[in-house]
Amino acid sequence: MIGNVVSRRYAAALFSIGKEAGMAELERYGASLSALGEAVEKTPRLAEAFRNPVLSTEEKKKVALSLLDVAGGGAVEHRFCALLADKDRLPLLPAIAADFSAMLDEARGISRGVVTTAVELDDARKDSIKNKLESQTERKLELEYVIDLSIIGGIVFRVGDKVYDASLRAQLDNLRESIKRGE
């Protein structure tokens, strides 16, 4: 919980700086921050090094800044990572990157969602579903498609904290509850 609050604050601070510079800068910050967050997430030894109290802040900073150079980060990102190192917040890079990405999506008017079906959908069907959902939610959507045989049929759509469940499993569960209540 504390990591979420702290990571959101750091992401919001960088976002507000980027907002003043324009959308292109926000995109660049997001790309370099995502690359750093991904590196920490996918390399357990790197995450351990950032949490290791034996390593000095300068050593951690040097590693983070060299990774940022590879990711193509600019001066603002360098100062941001140096601040994270000074405050011993480098282990939060994946969470900060995720929070920043969510803020960037909101600024772009994009919502990310998951569409769950019982069968694989072809591209035409995926496009049709995406277009229908975009018109209903009045937002641009980035969708991930997942197959889950337990829903039996139909579709389950999740975006943020909202779930739209039009699956056969949900309908059968509702029918079962109605029968139990004697309706």
Radius of gyration: 21 Å
Question: What percentage of amino acids are in beta strands?
Answer: 15-25%
Count every helix, treating DSSP H or I runs of 4 or more residues as helices: 8
Q: Give the N-to-C terminal Cα separation.
A: 43 Å
Largest sheet: 4 strands, mixed
Shape designation: elongated
- Structural class based on helices, strands and sheet pairing: alpha+beta
Please give the order of strands in the largest beta sheet.
Answer: 2-1-3-4
Give me the count of strands: 4
The run of helices and strands is HHHHHHEHEEEH
Which runs of at least 5 residues are low in confidence (pLDDT < 50)? none
What percent of residues adopt helix (DSSP H or I)? 55-70%
What is the typical, i.e. mean, pLDDT?
A: 91
Walk me through this protein's architecture.
- This protein has eight helices and four strands.
- It has helices at residues 2-21, 23-42, 44-51, 57-71, 75-86, 93-108, 123-137, 168-181, and strands at residues 110-117, 140-147, 154-159, 162-167.
- The chain is an alpha+beta fold and 183 residues long.
- A four-stranded mixed beta sheet has the order 2-1-3-4.
- It is elongated, with a radius of gyration of 21 Å.
Brief overview:
The protein is α+β, with helices and mostly antiparallel strands and 183 residues long. The chain has helices at residues 2-21, 23-42, 44-51, 57-71, 75-86, 93-108, 123-137, 168-181; strands at 110-117, 140-147, 154-159, 162-167.
How is the secondary structure organized here?
Elements: H1 2-21, H2 23-42, H3 44-51, H4 57-71, H5 75-86, H6 93-108, E1 110-117, H7 123-137, E2 140-147, E3 154-159, E4 162-167, H8 168-181
Parallel strand pairs: 1-2
Antiparallel strand pairs: 1-3, 3-4
Helix pairs in contact: 1-2, 1-6, 2-3, 2-4, 2-6, 4-5
